[in-house]
């Protein structure tokens, strides 16, 4: 409580809730869009760079832990082995939100799990990428930098005292399936992904992102002349295919060992049909992505902002005010603004860009035109 956490800004909003509850001082690592695939297309929300982690630990006093999201929602994977080594050289533990990487380490074509790469605490959401019921997850503890007794204590605080035996049975069934048939299932899954990638090579106006640092099970799709939201809506409406997310200039499809040959074939045929239609479009309408992880000025901690008097004003008139609420695009749930940060003109511009692209913006009360800010007059009084 009251400690200092170094974390990637593109972390899920639940992390920010923990920061607020424990009165933590957050120090952010900002992801870069520096990674590119073979065509030179920038990958959205790249992973954390080891050099940035080292620099932050060296230049910032009192950091108690490092928190990273790997893989990201789009599948970018950090160099966990090197980042763990750096964190440990400073005597601090590395916590990894590997919620979307529960399938890692089960086949050579997928990245290795952070559990095996030196991370001290690793979260796996089985329900995201493995066949297990929603709300089933695992917490792994490694090494000696994190107290086993304190982990158990806080699990007893935050978890229910009446766990669902149906959910726990689902976890056991998932693990049993992997032990019994995991090798065959992942070999078949890898084959389907490779076959789909070969089919995608023939597309002219729809592009499948492929980068060396990417989890291949995340299909990141770009379509010339269409936003990610439009691509996802078209696939849903016309072809009965539900993607995980439609963003500014890309859409994300999650795949797993539970997908079938038929499912991959349906997606490939749908993209081929759309690709042919896009080729006939006159001109090329460019779409622009939005960088959610904006470096706003932090005036106070989230907990401090939560305890000060607040008022509600029009969002359009909020430039210069200090936010008292979250504002994020969902999915993926990455905050563009957190309590205690100053609202800048660039942030307001990006909010308008998100709305123009049809992205869903949410906050404390999901107010579309108003926002809660610190009432500085009352606070000073």
Give a description of the structure.
By secondary structure, the protein is of the alpha/beta class. Helix content is 35%, strand content 17%. It has eleven helices and 15 strands. The chain has helices spanning 13-21, 50-59, 80-89, 126-129, 148-158, 165-200, 228-239, 261-279, 302-306, 345-356, 376-380; strands at 4-8, 25-29, 63-69, 94-97, 121-125, 137-141, 206-208, 218-223, 245-246, 251-254, 310-314, 327-329, 334-337, 361-363, 370-374. The strands form four sheets. It has a six-stranded mixed β-sheet with strand order 2-1-3-4-5-6. It has a four-stranded antiparallel β-sheet with strand order 7-8-10-9. Strands 13-12-14 form a three-stranded antiparallel β-sheet, with helices on one face. α2 (50-59) runs parallel beside α3 and α6 crosses α8. The protein is globular.
Q: What is the terminal separation in angstroms? A: 28 Å
| Helical stretch tally | 11
| Helix content, binned percent | 25-40%
How many strands in all? 15
**Rough outline:** globular
Describe the sheet with the most strands. 6 strands, mixed
- For the largest sheet, list the strands in their spatial order: 2-1-3-4-5-6
Poorly predicted segments: 282-288
Short key terms for the protein model shown above:
6-stranded mixed beta sheet, globular, 381 residues, alpha/beta, 11 helices, 35% helix
């Amino acid at each position: 409580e009251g400690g200092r956490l170094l974390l990637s800004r593109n972390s899920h909003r639940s992390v920010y809730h923990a920061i607020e509850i424990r009165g933590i001082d957050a120090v952010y690592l900002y992801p870069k869009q520096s990674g590119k695939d073979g065509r030179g297309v920038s990958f959205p929300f790249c992973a954390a760079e080891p050099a940035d982690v080292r620099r932050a630990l060296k230049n910032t006093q009192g950091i108690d832990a490092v928190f990273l999201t790997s893989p990201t929602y789009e599948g970018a994977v950090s160099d966990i082995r090197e980042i763990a080594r750096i964190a440990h050289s400073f005597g601090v533990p590395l916590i990894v939100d590997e919620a979307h990487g529960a399938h890692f380490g089960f086949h050579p074509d997928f990245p290795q799990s952070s559990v095996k790469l030196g991370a001290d605490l690793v979260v796996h959401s089985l329900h995201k990428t493995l066949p297990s019921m929603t709300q089933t997850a695992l917490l792994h503890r490694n090494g000696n930098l994190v107290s086993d007794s304190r982990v158990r204590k806080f699990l007893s605080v935050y978890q229910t005292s009446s766990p669902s035996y149906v959910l726990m049975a689902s976890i056991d069934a998932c693990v049993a399936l992997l032990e019994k048939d995991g090798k065959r299932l992942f070999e078949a899954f890898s084959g389907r992904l490779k076959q789909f990638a070969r089919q995608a090579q023939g597309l002219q106006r729809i592009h499948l992102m492929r980068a060396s640092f990417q989890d291949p099970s995340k299909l990141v799709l770009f379509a010339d002349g269409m936003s990610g939201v439009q691509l996802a809506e078209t696939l849903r409406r016309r072809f009965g295919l539900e993607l995980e997310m439609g963003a500014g200039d890309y859409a994300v499809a999650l795949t797993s060992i539970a997908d079938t040959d038929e499912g991959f074939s349906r997606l490939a045929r749908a993209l081929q049909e759309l690709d042919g239609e896009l080729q006939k479009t006159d001109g090329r309408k460019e779409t622009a992505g939005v960088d959610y992880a904006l470096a706003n000025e932090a005036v106070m901690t989230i907990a401090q902002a939560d305890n000060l008097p607040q008022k509600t004003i029009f969002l359009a008139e909020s430039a210069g005010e200090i936010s008292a609420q979250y504002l994020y695009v969902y999915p993926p749930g990455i905050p563009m603004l957190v309590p205690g940060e100053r609202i800048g003109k660039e942030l307001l511009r990006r909010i308008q860009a998100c709305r123009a692209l049809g992205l869903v913006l949410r906050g404390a009360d999901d107010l579309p035109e108003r926002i809660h800010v610190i009432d500085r007059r009352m606070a000073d009084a």
